[in-house]
Specification:
Blueprint (H helix, E strand, L loop, with lengths): L21 H22 E2 L2 E2 L7 H31 L1
Antiparallel strand pairs: 1-2
Helix pairs in contact: 1-2
């Protein structure tokens, strides 16, 4: 004789904060990474952080280009794949 066992509804876990929307991912991963890269590559000189390069437009252009590339590739290689896994 078969036992009738009731199946408990599965509790769906929420996706982690950074994979709920791309804005969250950008704020938590991309923005800090690009700011750290800017600080190390453009502002750090002679063991001190120098804020004078911020007056030059090339520094801001460097930050914008870095943001575009980092955002694009992290969306393609990280966010899209992980978010799809959490949605399923």
């Amino acid at each position: 004789m078969k036992k009738h066992t009731s199946k408990r509804p599965s509790i769906q876990k929420k996706a982690p904060f950074i994979y709920r929307s791309f804005i969250n991912f950008w704020l938590v991963v991309v923005l800090p990474a690009t700011l750290a890269a800017l600080t190390i590559s453009k502002l750090y000189y002679n063991n001190t952080i120098n804020f004078e390069p911020l007056a030059q437009p090339s520094t801001w252009l460097y930050l914008a280009i870095l943001q575009v590339f980092t955002t694009f590739f992290s969306y393609i290689w990280v966010f899209r794949i992980k978010a799809k896994n959490y949605r399923n």
